[in-house]
Specification:
Layout (H helix, E strand, L loop, with lengths): L8 E11 L32 H8 L6 E2 L38 H19 L12 E5 L3 H14 L9 E4 L13 H20 L1 H14 L3 H6 L2 H10 L6 E2 L2 E2 L2 H21 L1 H25 L7 E6 L1 H10 L13 E9 L6 E7 L2 E2 L19 E2 H16 L6 H5 L5
Parallel strand pairs: 1-7, 2-4, 3-4, 3-7
Antiparallel strand pairs: 1-8, 5-6, 8-9, 9-10, 9-11
Helix pairs in contact: 2-3, 4-9, 5-8, 9-10, 9-11
């Protein structure tokens, strides 16, 4: 649905939030061999992208690029024959059973997404001039190599052979992208309540506990140690890269274990939506980055010079709160390489009027958001007034929290919880 707009609408700015691409596990199942996955980028294996070799070549020239500390110490593309923990990959399978964590293809997926955005926003809508400058791009990433590399891959697909002198990636220490507004006791309170809900649900699932116990027996460690190693992270990598689950002399971890844990995760997601404890955390967790975004949109709507294309290369724990805060209850868990896009449009027939459109993985979800759910019933315009989004971030998010707070600081320090 990206690029679909009435002929008299002009694209003003685009704000892109992505989850990094397919990665190697963050955890290892105790006493088992790490899955053997090659993280080098090579042209003679699938999946492939025509710009893959050019991307690798261009990254090798980026040593003089401008990155905010500590990003300058990170590798610009994956290059280890045996992947390191959490490293971006090239290869993965698309497996229907993995739909809740739909697998992408590491670097290649972001090259494809970047090219898609280039065709829409640059070739069709001329979002950036041919002589674009550094201050027309806003690039931000966490301090993980997988987010920096994902951001660079998407950027290369979007702006092939970009001038390194025009690129400046800002470092975001927090996965919530909360910048200088990260201290929020009430947000942490909501998170503790949500974690308590998760714990109680797990205690009620006897089949899950038996499964963890059986897996712990196979790898010969205490059940508590096995559970703490978050085995589903490694199992997903085995499954989606078509690598056999690990075996020991006590037996093999298998699909029956995988299915039980995955089923519980789906049930946990369903209950999370019902109990709404996560929503309080999401509203406060997402507010700083949404506030930044509407600030950029407002400056662009006023015609002030500034960023026309913003890219945040982030994690699932970044996108999940934003999706929940926006009221997108039907949105699936942010898969690898998921993208959430805010478009700002101007009505040329009424230049003072600006509208926003929100897309999740290419699907228009504008009228599924809590601040614009009923607007299409009152207007023929296929978008939502910018004022609705601004009012939501400046006021309605705090109203939804209750407690009488009217700003982020007050909501974060509300007494009586």
């Amino acid at each position: 649905m990206q690029s679909h707009a009435p002929h008299h609408f002009k694209l003003v700015s685009v704000h892109v939030f992505i989850r990094h691409g397919d990665r190697y596990p963050l955890y290892v199942i105790p006493k088992t061999k790490r899955p053997e996955i090659d993280c080098t980028l090579v042209a003679n294996r699938k999946p492939y992208h025509p710009k893959l070799e050019a991307f690798v070549s261009h990254m090798s020239k980026g040593s003089g690029a401008s990155f905010e500390s500590p990003l300058h110490s990170l590798p610009l593309y994956p290059s280890h024959q045996l992947c390191e923990m959490g490293e971006l990959t090239q290869t993965a399978l698309f497996v229907p059973l993995c739909t809740q964590f739909t697998v992408s293809i590491g670097v290649v997926q972001h090259l494809q997404n970047g090219q898609l955005l280039r065709d829409i926003y640059l070739k069709k809508h001329k979002l950036l001039p041919s002589d674009w400058s550094m201050d027309q791009l806003y690039l931000e990433t966490t301090g993980k190599s997988r987010t920096l590399q994902s951001g660079l891959a998407l950027l290369y697909g979007f702006l092939p052979d970009f001038d390194w002198k025009k690129i400046y990636f800002r470092h975001q220490p927090s996965a919530l992208f909360c910048s200088g507004n990260c201290y929020c006791p009430v947000r942490n309170h909501y998170l503790e309540k949500e974690q308590r809900r998760q714990y109680l649900l797990r205690l009620k699932n006897n089949q899950l506990e038996r499964t963890y116990g059986d897996m712990a027996r196979i790898v010969d460690v205490p059940t508590k140690q096995l559970r703490a190693a978050n085995p589903i992270d490694s199992m997903l990598c085995h499954f989606c890269h078509n690598v056999s689950f690990p075996c020991t002399r006590n037996g093999c971890i298998g699909m029956e274990h995988f299915k039980v844990i995955k089923t519980h995760q789906i049930e946990d997601e369903r209950e999370r939506q019902e109990k709404k404890l996560y929503l309080g955390y999401a509203l406060l967790g997402a507010h700083p980055i949404l506030n930044q975004t509407i600030g950029r949109m407002q400056r662009a709507a006023e015609g002030r010079r500034g960023e026309l294309f913003a890219l945040y290369s982030a994690h699932d724990v970044t996108l999940s709160p934003v999706l929940s805060a926006l009221g997108l209850t039907e949105a699936r868990f942010p898969r690898f390489a998921a993208r959430l896009i805010f478009e700002l449009w101007q009505d040329r027939e009424k230049p003072s009027e600006h509208s926003v459109r929100i897309l999740y993985n290419g699907v228009d979800v504008t009228f599924h958001t809590s601040f614009c759910r009923d607007h299409h019933k009152r207007s023929l315009k296929p978008m939502c007034p910018l004022e609705n989004l601004v009012r939501f971030v400046k006021k309605d998010m705090f109203v939804a929290l209750g407690g009488g707070g009217t700003n982020y600081h007050d909501a974060c320090h509300r007494a009586g919880l």
